[in-house]
Amino acid sequence: MTTTSTTDPRVERSRAKLLAAATDLIVEAGPQAFTVDAVAERSGVAKSTLYRHWPSREALMLDVLRANVPEVPPRDPRLGFEAQLRSLLRALAETFADPEWARILPALFALKHHVPGVEELTDGDREEKVTMLLDVLDAGVAEGLIPPGLEPRTVAATLVGPLLMCVLSGETDIVADVADYTVDRFLESYRPR
C-alpha cells in the first residue's frame, strides 16, 4: 500500500527556503537585523507566504531555533555506565563538530535574549538532555563507579562546557578528542586511589 503526502511539495519548499534564509540572516547579522522583509527578500519567497507559515517574526525565530537544536540519540541501557557516558558525549561532539552547528551556535545564544519563548524552548531542551544524563549517572551509581547525589546540571556543565568552548573558539577539529579527554578525566576523578 502506498501513501501520499497531503502536503503540497511547493509549500514544503517555500517553508524550507524561508527557514534557510532566516537562519542565514540570524547567523550573519544577528537577531536585531532579522526582519520579515529581509527574510522574504533573501529567500525569494513572498512575505504573504511567510505569514502563511508563521504568524509573526518571533514564531519564525522560534522555528529557526527548533530546526537547529541538536538531537541526541537515546541512550542504550544495555550498555554499561562508561559506554553510555562516552556514547552521549561522542554524539554531542559529532553534532558540535558539524560546520552548520558551529556556524549557528553563537546566534542561538543571542536569540535567547531577544525573542520571547526562546528561553522556555532552550530550557526544555536542556532539561531533556539533563534527564538523559541523570539516567546515565544513575547507571554509574548502580555500578559503584560514581557516588550518589551528583548534581546533574553541574556534571553536564563540566562535561559539555569544554565541547562548547571548542565550537565557540572555532576548534571543531578537536571536539571529539576533547569529549574523550573530558570523559577520561571525569571517570578518573572517581577512581579509588
Provide the fold topology.
Layout: H1 9-29, H2 36-43, H3 47-53, H4 57-68, H5 81-97, H6 99-111, H7 118-142, H8 152-168, H9 175-188
Helix pairs in contact: 1-2, 1-4, 1-6, 5-7, 5-8, 5-9, 8-9
3D structure, described in words:
The chain is mainly alpha-helical and about 190 residues long. It has helices spanning about 10-30, 35-45, 45-55, 55-70, 80-95, 100-110, 120-140, 150-170, 175-190. Helix 8 (about 150-170) runs antiparallel to helix 9 (about 175-190).
Radius of gyration (CA) equals: 20 Å
Strand coverage percent: under 5%
- In total, how many beta strands? 0
Order of helices and strands: HHHHHHHHH
For the termini, the CA-CA separation is 63 Å
Helix content: 55-70%
**Which geometry do the CA atoms define?**
elongated
Mean pLDDT across all amino acids = 86
* Tally of contiguous helical segments: 9
Structural class: mainly alpha
Uncertain stretches = 1-5
Largest sheet: none
What tags apply to this protein structure?
about 0% strand, disordered N terminus, about 190 residues, elongated, mainly alpha, about 70% helix
